[in-house]
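Hey, can you fold this one?
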Amino acid sequence: MAKKILIVEDDPIGRKVLTDYLTAHGYDVSTASTGTEGVAMAAAQSPDLVVCDVLLPRKSGFEVCFEIKRAPATREVPILLMSAVCKDSHSEFYAAVDLHAEGYFVKPFKMSALLARIRTLLAA
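Sure. Predicted structure:
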């Protein structure tokens, strides 16, 4: 059975690119366009992994990560955060140490690097 990945991304083009790429690599992908929707979908679907933008409407990706990691049913779900704006080392440190995100990608990033990280996390 294909591993389930939830993509939380407000940019429709970015969401489509990620969806098409991960689907082509055998993953079952669902998407959310707001942070609030992402948290709700993570709770309802129990994805194997979440890829989440940082700057989102209603709830930031940092808040999404915090809420998913706080909930007993989803606390073990790996989360990869991505941002085109939050490029400083403080954001990456905060994501890893305070929020326990399993990765932080600065846009633009190589899709192959994202895929490699996803494969490593889902193989564990």
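The chain has one domain: 4-123. Let me know if you want another pass with a different chain boundary.
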